[in-house]
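New to this. Explain the following:
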Amino acid sequence: MLTEEKIKETCIAIYKAKNSERKQSPDTPERWNRILGKFIREPEENTVFTAMMQERIRKTAAFLGEVDFPGPEDEILDLGCGIGFYTTEFAAHAKKVTAADFSQNMLDRARDRNRRVGFENVDYELCDIKTLNPEERGWSRKFDLVFSAMTPDCYQYESIRKMETMSRKYCCLQIALSTTYDPGTDIIRQVFGSKTVLSRDRRKEFQLLNGFLSLEGSFPSVRYYRDSCSFPDDDEEEYLARMLVRANIRECTDEQMQRLRELLRQKKEDGVLQIRTDWLAGWILWDVREKECCPVSG
């Protein structure tokens, strides 16, 4: 007999398997420390990126507002906070925010941003979710909301369980479900073949996540939206390196690399490389208290 417990276990097993198949993420502390400032600049320097983030934050706030979050007595953990866009939004409404990231440069930028707007209710923690031990950190059941936006390391099954361990009310993930790159997709396919895949499609994993959380009694709320960002990038080598990682190409000959450079330069307009990224993204919000009081029936 196929029980709810068996269905849940199957969802979790497939979710884990799909994540284990993923190519290694290019996101490392060293990389973000190095490229900070190339395309994530201050608002006055990158109005396109800032406008995109402000709209994304507005939509996120509306989504969280459905459960009256955040409130004046809430404590929030912002995992993978980056330069602190969401941290600033949370700090304006919550009692306390902990901004955590594995890049010290990102944390420094987040601290500077929040000091400029006068928020003193934020702590900054150097933290890698992959190696984080919530109990040792003193973060077990510490936060009313554990939140993470566009941080692939937080999509892992083990990371999701850590998030639940740290929350006493809600967890929320904002996930890039599919991504396309311009001109990266075109030039990579010209060199390595038309079937080369760069888009990271997590739509099925998102449904599996929703499935096993529902079967555990958390009854998640889910929303979808589309997003895009276009900005100049002056580092050709860094951009090509990112595209090769996205395509899971581990070996590239000197001839192929030279061809990629030539194609990329052909895409420049007036000597400037304009890159564009399009996302289909989703939010998933669940209440860990529901999970605790509603065990799966056999």
Notes: The chain has one domain: 4-180+199-232+278-293. Strands lie at 75-79, 96-101, 122-126, 143-149, 167-182, 221-232, 274-287. Residues 66 and 221 are 10 Å apart (CA to CA).
